Every structure is written in structure tokens, then in C-alpha cells.
Amino acid sequence: MHSDQSSNAALVADVLKTEIVVREWKDRAGVVKASLIESVVRRFMASEEGCRIKETAEKLGAAVRETTEAGGVSRIELDSFIAHVIR
């Protein structure tokens, strides 16, 4: 799982556009200070960037829920896989 973190970070930042940087990846060793987390959360809560990220997250969440409902693409694929396995 640890080896996927940089790929996941790129997905979140470059593709989904839902990133707020706490610290640079090159500085990943060590513990993040509480004061830094506080400042990032405050920035997120009080900025246009934070509002944009929340809107994007809501849209992504709705899209994911839609695919898992009956008739949704993920649900259809899962049902197809199960039917294949149990035949």
C-alpha cells in the first residue's frame, strides 16, 4: 500500500483536482505538526479553493453512489461477475 501513495497523490491532485497540500512529498519523513494541520484545515474551510474541492467531492460521491445502485455500471459488472463465478 505504501508504494501507491505517490500515485494516489497524483490522482487526487492532477486528475480529481481535490488536493490541499499539507507538505511537499519530498518532506514526507517525520510527523506533521498539529499547528500545520490546523492552518491547512482553516485555509480549506475559509477559501474558494476549499469550496471548489467540496463541490468536486460531492459530485464525485454522487457519481460513485450512482454506479453502485441497481442498474449502475459497477453493480452490473459485479452482478455479471457473480453470475459467472456461480454457474
UniProtKB/TrEMBL annotation:
PANTHER family: GLYCOSYLTRANSFERASE (PTHR48044). It comes from the Eukaryota. This is Cis-zeatin O-glucosyltransferase. One of its GO terms (biological process) is carbohydrate derivative metabolic process. One of its GO terms (molecular function) is UDP-glycosyltransferase activity. Signal peptide: none annotated.
